[in-house]
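Memo to structure team: turn this sequence into structure tokens by end of day. - J.P.
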Amino acid sequence: MTIRTDMEFSLIESFLWAPVPFWSPYLHGHSKEVPGLEDYIFTPARLGKFQLSQDYISETAKAENWRQRFFLLDRHLERIKASSSALGFRFGQDAFFDVLKDADRAILRDVPERFKYSNNEGGAANFVFKVRITLSPQGSFSKDFVKIRPVSKLPVLFDISNIPAEEAVAMPTHKTTLRDVLNREFKRAASLGLFDTVFMNRMGEITEGTISNVFIDAGDGVLRTPALSAGLLPGTLRAELIASGLAVEGRVTRQMLEQAEAVYLGNSVRGLVPSQLAGPF
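Reply from structure team:
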């Protein structure tokens, strides 16, 4: 496979970084409990319930600690390796881990000293970050990170874009910087006070949002998420929920979305966010 030269773009992986495990029941063996759906659902209070302990903040030299701070690391690694192979990007796993460790060290430098060894729950919410790693076709990595803003009101609202999914996403199965339409639609939705906007393909199937996968609960307790064949990104949280038996793939239409008992927009940074289709503006 040769590197694509017809357009210039990079691969992206966006991580949740937290000083301690975010959803402890299923992060890296910290609990032997089998996770339930409630463990994945975001609530505004969840970001303020970390226990900032000396074990996790101070011992930054231990590899297992930085690994624990990146949520769903193995699934992100699997996805970027698969995309690199499919698109002909050079990928070095050691370099990938090195840039994550660099991000971890940089974030910890931002954590105020007064919180490093305390259990101050009010301050803990300030130390949750989205880390974005980009990979160029030639194999070089870069990083940036921003603090996550808690969602203050649930459910969040979303609308359905007038742009067909086929026109919005250049390569739906890969997470890349080719996001011009997605970014414009996200900004449009945000200007209306919405959390996201969701796309439909020309077959009338719901696909995904600009920053999230879509999940509906028809009342049976198992989430249904659009199948990859509809044209959407294989999200890491989506993959985890399917592997855990908490979600299944299938066709999702607008009518099913409107009639669902519950709707969630989800990604690995936010988790499952209770959501509602907005009315006409």
